[in-house]
């Protein structure tokens, strides 16, 4: 079976690259028809310079939708073949202006007629197809500018993972997982402190018996995440001991745990959630902001050396 038929739309990028290779190869044949010593990849830059002399490389890159580095390389190739000249701009010496040389201007005269012929041939080609590829490409580029393919894939993956992640209430046999996950992340960035060991070694005494709760995340039969709610007073819980295994990070599991902890706190009548963290843990802080936490200076002195930021979330009924 043909690869593209088997894989389908998941291979859209590969299919477009194959089409691009085909078009580029046939474009080279077109240039040979007109006896023009020219590479197809030069055309967007050369055409832009020919249409308006003295363009800056940055302007050209923006106009044709390519990177500054890619345009700079093409300009170097064109200059090497004596088709363009590059000079410092009179107004701003930091910028380079690109213009056609005399040889480039001669080439441009013949290239304009070739472009007209190619445009007519391409329009006839598009007329042979049921769907106008040119218009479809415009729609595709617009859609991708609104939301990248990667973000679309991530949304689908996260939705799938969400259905495969199970949030569990703590049971004594989960104690090794609770401790392992927390020690793992603490030792990666800091050191395990005495205050950590009290809660990690004796979660019943220091968390559960004081009105707190521990949640765990199970994914594909493995406990890969955990967090705890420590009761501070009748209205406030501390969100603490949140950890996700490195093997499961990036799957939105931390967010699922955070959402579950917030829902649990609301069910218990809490009006405020509080947490402590460190500013070097950028991904964690991004997660907390996404969950609705904001920095506060009203927190009590922390028992942890590593704490240099305190955050809170006011809960609504």
From TrEMBL:
Keyword field contains Transcription regulation: yes
Keywords for this protein: Acyltransferase, DNA-binding, Transcription, Transcription regulation, Transferase
Domain HTH marR-type: 9-158
CDD domains for the chain: NAT_SF
Superkingdom of the organism of origin: Bacteria
MF terms in GO: acyltransferase activity, transferring groups other than amino-acyl groups; DNA binding; DNA-binding transcription factor activity
Transmembrane segments: none
SUPFAM superfamilies, A to Z: Acyl-CoA N-acyltransferases (Nat), Winged helix' DNA-binding domain
The protein, known as: MarR family transcriptional regulator/GNAT family N-acetyltransferase
Keyword DNA repair: no
Pfam families in alphabetical order: Acetyltransf_1, MarR_2
Domain N-acetyltransferase: 176-316
């Amino acid at each position: 079976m043909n690869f593209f038929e088997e894989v389908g739309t998941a291979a859209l990028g590969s299919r477009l690259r194959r089409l691009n290779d085909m078009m580029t190869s046939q474009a080279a044949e077109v240039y040979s028809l007109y006896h023009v010593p020219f590479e197809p990849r030069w055309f967007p830059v050369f055409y832009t310079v020919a249409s308006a002399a003295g363009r800056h490389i940055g302007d050209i890159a923006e106009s044709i939708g390519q990177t500054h580095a890619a345009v700079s390389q093409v300009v170097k190739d064109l200059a090497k073949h004596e088709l363009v000249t590059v000079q410092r701009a009179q107004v701003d010496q930091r910028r380079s202006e690109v213009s056609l040389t005399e040889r480039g201007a001669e080439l441009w005269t013949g290239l304009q007629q070739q472009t007209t012929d190619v445009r007519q041939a391409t329009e006839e080609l598009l007329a042979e197809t049921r769907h106008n590829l040119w218009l479809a490409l415009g729609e595709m580029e617009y859609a991708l500018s609104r939301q990248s393919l990667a973000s679309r894939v991530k949304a689908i993956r996260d939705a799938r993972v969400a259905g495969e992640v199970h949030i569990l209430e703590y049971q004594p046999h989960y104690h090794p997982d609770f401790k392992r996950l927390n020690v793992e992340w603490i030792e990666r960035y800091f050191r395990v402190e005495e205050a950590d060991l009290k809660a990690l070694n004796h979660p019943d005494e220091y968390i559960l018996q004081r009105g707190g709760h521990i949640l765990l995340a199970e994914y594909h039969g493995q406990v890969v995440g955990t967090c705890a709610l420590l009761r501070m007073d009748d209205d406030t819980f501390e969100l603490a001991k949140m950890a996700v295994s490195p093997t499961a990070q990036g799957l939105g599991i931390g967010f699922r745990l955070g959402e579950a902890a917030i829902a649990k706190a609301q069910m218990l009548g809490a009006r405020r959630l509080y947490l402590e963290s460190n500013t070097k843990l950028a991904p964690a802080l991004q997660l907390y902001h996404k969950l609705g936490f904001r920095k506060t200076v009203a927190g009590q002195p922390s028992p942890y050396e590593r704490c240099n930021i305190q955050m809170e979330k006011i809960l609504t009924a």
